[in-house]
Hints:
By secondary structure, this protein is α/β, with parallel strands linked by helices. It contains 18 helices and 15 strands.
Amino acid sequence: xxxxxxxxxxxxxxxxxxxxxxxxxxxxxxxxxxxxxxxxxxxxxxxxxxxxxxxxxxxxxxxxxxxxxxxxxxxxxxxxxxxxxxxxxxxxxxxxxxxxxxxxxxxxxxxxxxxxxxxxxxxxxxxxxxxxxxxxxxxxxxxxxxxxxxxxxxxxxxxxxxxxxxxxxxxxxxxxxxxxxxxxxxxxxxxxxxxxxxxxxxxxxxxxxxxxxxxxxxxxxxxxxxxxxxxxxxxxxxxxxxxxxxxxxxxxxxxxxxxxxxxxxxxxxxxxxxxxxxxxxxxxxxxxxxxxxxxxxxxxxxxxxxxxxxxxxxxxxxxxxxxxxxxxxxxxxxxxxxxxxxxxxxxxxxxxxxxxxxxxxxxxxxxxxxxxxxxxxxxxxxxxxxxxxxxxxxxxxxxxxxxxxxxxxxxxxxxxxxxxxxxxxxxxxxxxxxxxxxxxxxxxxxxxxxxxxxxxxxxxxxxxxxxxxxxxxxxxxxxxxxxxxxxxxxxxxxxxxxxxxxx
Length: 503
């Protein structure tokens, strides 16, 4: 179980006019993106305090491994964090019993823990606390508000806080903290303490910490960013985190995949066209750079960009303007560029297939996203908990754990497809799980039944591929969509290979 340590939030003036039922609007979009989790949860606490006219608010999360509550977000300028045992304070009582507690005069209540007031110099006069429960009804945290403005908390405030606690639970379920708020009994030792930095980016290994530091620095600027890394490592998630935590967060985030489009369509997608530029161009159309004004364009697999389009992209980066296809007018560009590639761009520059001037323009800030095999078993275990939780909710399954053998099998697999391969594997396993615990047999991974290699340890690629596809189809009971995901290929590619191999 995780140690949910947080940075103390500065004291803020709650927004006026927030009412119960309005907690999630405005935050909902951030819940599924790479938002800074501290900022997101502070905003949540601001809204809770404003809804019940409280002077201060705190969101505690339960660290079950240590049997403690830890303040994850709080109006708490005096201390870095609050840690309470489950036998300490009103919040500890609420976490232990699951009760809603309203203390109109805190000094006279035996459950009140005065030590926090002594450390902060703040005087708590009234207090209202409510449990935060996950979808199975288990307490995963406590919402606590202090000092009702103009009186004491009443029954209406209790009802309001219960409703807000349910909304807060819904919000937490949508973040990457969700899987860490549950005990996934695997028989393995609990992972070391962790507090994720960005929503949807899971992992606290040293390589990921470097990614987080550079992401935070890049988000504070408008510099062009180049993301390097193997396919499936999560480069698009990092790109979104840069955008969502930047001053451009309210603008569009638009993606262009250079590997998915032919050269002619790719230029049109990026730069747009004028009416009559080509057959069928019956009206002017804006490209991604125009449409992303005030936002970010994510140019994925930039190593696949043809040389002619590379020159046009260089012009956008240098001059901050473009010409639509078939046009002569200079169109101003106000979009940040984040590019990504798994290719060796230096080798491409040496070979003359990638422009050196563009290469230097796009790597103002360079972030290397590590492959899964370099992130260590603790990060893999965190990703497993996260994906199992996500897919259990998506497919309506009650998955309470993963066996030690299954986790060991996942840890031993080399994951050539990186996090994307792990994600697809776990979705298939959860979707077809027949119990509340994932077993090794549910994992759609190559098994020990694979035939022995030919002399020299080498087997024909077609033979290996055919066996992998056949095994995936057997494991997933013929479900071709899940099999394609587990194998890390498109469904149409799988269909073609099934026909080729006569499966």
